Amino acid sequence: MGVNCSKVGESSPSTNRNAKAKPKAIPPIDITSKKDDLVFKKDNFVVKSDQKPETQYNIMQELGRGSYGTVSLVKHKLTEVERAMKEIKKNTKIKLEAQIEQDKDIMNEIEILKSIDHPNIVKILDFYSTPENYYIVTEVCKGGELFRQIQKLAPFDEFHAAFIMYQVFTAVHYCHLKRIVHRDLKPENILIEKTNTDGYFIIKIIDFGTAKLFKKDILQKTLIGSPYYIAPEVVLRKYTEKCDLWSCGVIFYILLSNKLPFNGEDDQEVFENIKKGTYSMNIPEFDNVSPEACDLIKRLLILDPEKRINLIDVFDHPFFANKKMKDYVCGVSKEKVLKCLKNIKDYQSEYILQTTVLAFLVHNFTHHDVVKDVSKFFNIFDNGVEQADGKLTREEVIKGLAKFMPKSEVVKSVDAIFTKIDTDGNGYIEYEEFVGACIDKRIFLKSNIMQFAFNFFDKDGSGKIELHELEEVFCNGKSKSDELRRALKEVIKSIDVNGDGSIDMKEFTIMMQKIIVGGAK
Predict the structure, then answer these.
(1) CA dist., res. 370 & res. 180, Å (int)
(2) Which superfamily does CATH assign the domain made up of 42-139 to?
(3) Residue 73 and residue 81: Cα distance in Å, rounded?
């Protein structure tokens, strides 16, 4: 039930303050502690709202329609950022048990999307629930479905196919490491975010409505997925996360040939052909396809999932190695790398509220070009033992920095990077954490963007951020510890210039200028 920005259904006031008042120094809060009550959870950014989405968004145009409802292009009223909004109709005529099951399915998708932080997976931004509908708002991908481009352009040249599949594999690998199996990978569920300067597609995976958290070595039994892409073990209702790799193999085959490896007059015949695992590369479309590409397809479309190639070996396969795909995906100029490193050095992340505001803005403004550049920089590091898993270990950063500075400086620099960026203290750096430290933060200094961030914390719209609202953001319904309450009181006290016990828009902006301007010198 993921949000699809392409057409569907055609295919499978700031108050007056003393201007001369000098802001107090903000004392650092120990956010390097691993205590849960001092660590902000990024999934708190997406909170269910009972309002209608029209309170925040203008609906621009319909992008598609299906049995579930519609997909629309919307524009945020304050920030003017375009997004995609999927409306899912609630079936109020069914029995209560069925309604509960529908709610469960929707919330499953929401919770999975909230937990995901990867550049090649669509990001959820807002979620609304009204008596009639659910609304899921995500970043928009204006290039539409990969399926449409396959219809127009396939077969693709091998390098373009490799670039697309490398991105798909990194996203799938990230999901599997988080114990998420997608179960419905297909070109209709791969969107094109943009085309790079070489004309190749930058993609994002969508539709986690059929996704599920799995336990290692526990077989799944639900028959789910799209017939042409479904793995044989899914048809047999005994499968693991490796069913996603079979689907990747089918997509890869189609990219290179514009043909389906498994077909039939109806779903049952397709399923029977899949269970047999027989397909052909002895067709004209494969005459000029390299042996390496054919070998990778064959190793993905192995009937026995235990013998099917694993993702680590996929990344090291000659098909990608010969094309130096890792280097291409990580391609960014040394000038931009050094600029990112300087931004990290200047990054002032010792204040929990500032860091949280910045993380919120990064989460909501992924469309900026500066964010895209940092994404490539991230890939330079995210290329080590774990192979493109969407998070950075110390070893990966050490290896990556060795390309840009003397070895004698690397370890010291890595210590500084982890101290500043790993704010949740989990021992590795996630994608959005890295982006927040690396980017030139002046892109967020516009008044409407500051107001947008302020409004997120000002839950009751009073024009002031009060203690109970910070507790709501940081606890999100969980119990509030005395330690967290004391820390947040100190945050308010240090920012509260006029001493009224709250933070207004002017005080909020002064607070953020320290981290934003300070990090952009």
Answers:
(1) 29
(2) Phosphorylase Kinase; domain 1 (3.30.200.20)
(3) 11
Tell me the CATH number for domain 146-329. Answer: 1.10.510.10
400-417: buried (b, 16+ CB within 10 Å) or exposed (e) per residue? bbeeeeeeeebeebbeeb
pTM: predicted TM-score of the whole model, two decimal places: 0.83
**Does 73 have pLDDT greater than 90?**
yes
Catalytic residue among 184, 207, 422, 504: 184
Range of 213-222, 259-268, 290-299 with top mean pLDDT? 290-299
How many Å apart are CA 194 and CA 191, to the nearest integer? 9
* Pairwise pLDDT comparison (52 vs 21), residue with the higher score: 52
Does residue 36 register a pLDDT over 70? no
The residue type of 141 is C
Torsion angle, alpha carbons of 148, 153, 156, 157, to 10: -150
Fold entry, domain 334-518:
Recoverin; domain 1 (1.10.238)
Identify the residue with better confidence: 438 or 280.
280
The C-alpha atoms of residue 341 and residue 87 are separated, in whole angstroms, by 41
Length of the chain in terms of residues written: 521
Residue 184: active-site member? yes
> With contact defined as beta carbons under 8 Å apart, do 215 and 249 qualify?
no
